[in-house]
Fold:
Amino acid sequence: MSGTAPYRLLLVEDNPADVYLIQEALREHCVACEITCLEDGEAALQALFPADETSSFAPDGVILDLNTPKVEGIEVLRRIRQSPSLRHLPVAIVTSSEFPKDKSDAAALGATCYILKSARLEEFFARVGSSIKQMLEQ
Amino acid sequence: MNTDSVAARPEGSNPRTHWRNADAVLKQTAQALAGLYGASLGVFTLDCGGESLRVASQDGNPGDTIPDFPYSYALPIIGRDGGKIGLFTCYSNRPLRPREQDCPQVNQLLATAVLADENVRLNTESRELTAEIEKAKQLHLGFIRSVVHDLRSPFVAVSNMAQLLRIRCGEILDDQTNELISLTTGAIDRGLALLSSLSAYSLIGTTAVEPCPIQLTEAVGVALFHLDKAVRQCGAVITTDELPVIIGRRDDIEQVLIHIIQNALTFRGTNSPRVHISAIMSGEQWVVSVSDNGAGFDNRYASQIFEPFKRLGGNRFPGSGLGLAICKKIVELHQGSIWAESEPGKGSVFRFTLPAASQSAAAASHGARC
Structure:
């Protein structure tokens, strides 16, 4: 990323409270970004892989919840990693799932980071803010 | 002539062991039966639970039309339930006639075919059942995942929102409202801890980790590392005897130790907690004992405490009410048992059994980690 142009982020999250908290976390960590929020995995796939290629949306990073409506987050990740043009796109999984297989599946599919949503606000901000900042700056 | 003695096997079916066993038994039986009738060739055609199996007594083509053997004689094979399960056909180049005096032998040989058929059918059924169990297991896991994730998600969001509210508006809210926010986040924390325990309880035994030799001393060390803060806070003294090498799943055994030691710290008495861990050999198992000088409990409840959500101390003590239930589930998955002995005010002893490692496995486990 060059200059001071904000990062373009795609946030796929259906819970408005989490959308708010993630935005706050990024603000706390001074991550300059323009966030496009989509509520479900299908909408995310349509934005990333539009039928009309001229309208394709190329974000600098994706923040994915795992349990998203219509198409699950893990499937969105799989499609991104299978795509020749998007396979290097940084993808952060931000989830409430403590289920071990979710973490191992995300790792196997090449998620850039796996962030467990903490119920401690400070920890939530620290984990989400610093991990995503690091992900974008790499 | 075709030299394949097994004429028709279900397409795409792997020659599994039970098929091979059935082939061998039936080929021998067909030879004996054909011999009784003076036939050149005997062919079994069995409907093994829908998977047709044909076996000939010798090299040859057991097709329906055999030019070399124009004479044939067929015997129905009757299953245990009285239904026809197949056919035995003799082929010859001269007329065949059944001989009454051979009937007992014939019936005995046909019974062998019935057994072979049953064997194949049961194996097929067992394979199908195994597949069904695996499918049910996956559904169960999917359900646990949904419950744990979907319930945890709003809890986490509400807790964080309440904390944000206190940070942003705490100064303009009165003490009573701030207290209400604290009570809200406290209740959510307990809910989240309960969900984590429920998740851990449900996931026991669902991973494909194989048991291996484990030095119990190391497992105790890991458990104490996890409990370090709690041990230091209450000034507990933990001691151990020389501990053996047992067979188990490392993470599971560590969990058992964490929960039992945690239990001793939670239900401590008036004195500083003292916990001692020892083990004695009993048959081919080790009986591991964790004794404490805690508050103890009425021995009448000794079995109840291992049931999920049975909290003898009610909500006065922290914990989800699943710790000892997790221990029981893990120990039983290791073919062991767990029990406790106690008396109010005189501490408790928790004992559980675990399989012993063989001497060679125990020696090999030194320095190794599975």
